[in-house]
Design a protein that fits this description.
By secondary structure, this protein is mostly helical. It is built from twelve helices and two strands; from the N terminus they run H-H-H-H-H-H-H-E-E-H-H-H-H-H.
């Protein structure tokens, strides 16, 4: 375990002392703030329009999710961040092994008194901490809403909690799990090439194919329709992003992460003897 933590610390140091992590933090901050303001403006305009129309009793079913800040602002923001992570995580994962091979330090790493498992887990853990920090950037917006926002009951004039923090934390957990899954895929791809650019592009292409995979479900016949729906990202993260605790996505994405980490280990181990 000590070796794994040492490698993870080394990877975090590389991320934070080079532009890699800071570019990602800046990009995520800019994009998330842009969408946060957009969702907040839409929320405010919808409330003013519904008030003029006679209240929520006259609102359409499609407008009901705008009744509170959690469903109207925070959860749409988290859904958008799922797509944003698909762009930034391949950028972070691409260097994990490809950079070592490009700089000719991979052979030195392989001859060190470290096992392939320790190398893979250490690098993955270091990347995972950076992914967690990247996702944590988005938590500033629920905190801002809690500090400066207000919410009132739909039936009384009593003030209620601004956000449903259980729902918010489930959405945050969904982002972390999705980011961890993308990182596992990117780590495996990075172990196959010495080109950082190629590793990033291939990882992004694979994740994009998975994201749009669900679009073919409506045209498929059973049982393929059910299989595709089960494997789709939207289906797996639907409940957490609605504030419903569900262990199935945890098991599903944990299986995907474990699979790609095992593949990464086999890839690294095979090169030890080349």
């Amino acid at each position: 375990m000590r070796n794994i933590l040492a490698i993870a610390k080394k990877e975090m140091t590389v991320y934070l002392t080079t532009p890699w992590a800071w570019i990602v933090f800046t990009f995520v901050s800019f994009v998330s703030s842009f969408f946060f303001i957009g969702y907040l403006v839409r929320f405010k305009e919808a409330h003013e329009q519904i008030r003029l129309q006679g209240g929520w009793a006259q609102a359409t079913p499609d407008e009901q999710f705008l009744r509170n800040l959690t469903d109207g602002v925070v959860m749409p923001l988290f859904s958008t961040m799922l797509v944003v992570l698909m762009f930034v995580v391949p950028f972070l994962s691409a260097r994990l092994f490809a950079e070592e091979r490009r700089q000719k330090t991979f052979e030195l790493l392989m001859t060190s008194p470290l096992t392939s498992v320790e190398i893979v887990l250490g690098k993955y853990l270091g990347g995972l901490v950076i992914i967690g920090a990247t996702v944590a950037v988005t938590m500033i917006y629920p905190l801002v809403l809690t500090m400066f926002g207000s919410s009132f009951s739909a039936t009384t004039s009593e003030k209620t909690a601004t956000l449903e923090w259980v729902t918010v934390m489930l959405g945050f957990g969904a982002l972390v799990v999705w980011g961890a899954t993308l990182l596992a895929i990117g780590t495996f791809v990075s172990s196959l090439t010495e080109s950082v650019i190629a590793a990033g592009l291939i990882t992004f292409a694979l994740c994009l194919m998975w994201l749009v995979f669900q679009s073919v479900a409506p045209n498929a016949d059973e049982p393929w329709r059910s299989v595709i729906d089960h494997l789709s990202i939207e289906a797996q993260l639907r409940n957490p992003l609605r504030g419903v605790f569900d262990l199935r996505p945890v098991v599903f994405f944990s299986s995907v992460i474990a699979t790609f980490l095992v593949l990464t280990h086999r890839s690294v181990e095979s090169r030890r003897w080349v």
